[in-house]
Amino acid sequence: MHNTMEEIRIYHSYKRNIGTMLACLLFVACGCFLLSSEDTVAKVISIAALVFFGGGLLLVVYTLIKHFLQKKPCIVVKDHSIILSGIKEHEIRFCDVEEFYMTKKTGNLICVKYKEDIEEQKIIDSSVAERMARKFNNKVTGAQESISAEGLTMDAVSLLDILNDRLERSRKLGR
User: Fold this and answer.
1) Whole-prediction pTM value?
2) What are the DSSP calls for 94-115, one per residue?
3) Are 153 and 67 in contact (CB under 8 A)?
4) By the 8 A CB rule, do 75 and 35 touch?
5) Could you tell me if 166 and 5 are in contact, meaning their C-beta atoms sit under 8 angstroms apart?
6) 4/80 Cα distance (integer angstroms)
7) 2, 105, 121, 173: which has the fewest C-beta neighbours closer than 10 Å?
């Protein structure tokens, strides 16, 4: 009997990310326009818009180009784990996870609730900045980590269903 499940590869949707890029471009243009203002508050707002939305634009463009050139999926769902490809690759093993869920607060974020001993170990292994981020995420979503389903070829609800199905199958197989 063959118990291996099909590997699922989820890529960035270039069409879905165009809206994000256009919104960032609009705010960057507004920031540039406000920069010429004599008002100090307008200048502060323009600099904040340029930094935040300009940085967001660069990040979206960088990620899309990187994934396009490498033909690399953003998320790979395997039998025993999920591989997330971002700035660095990250693996979430199903045997470490208690549950996956979405809250109304998080939109397209799938929260990863680890088992208690794993959560403690992740805090211990984290740098100071990572600890702060994990604690902040925990307060906002109830989980230390989350998986962004924004701009993917699969919607968040379908991805959540797949992850919970794989989590349940992994438990039954004792992985």
Assistant:
1) 0.72
2) GGGEEEEE--TTTTTEEEEEE-
3) no
4) no
5) yes
6) 10
7) 2
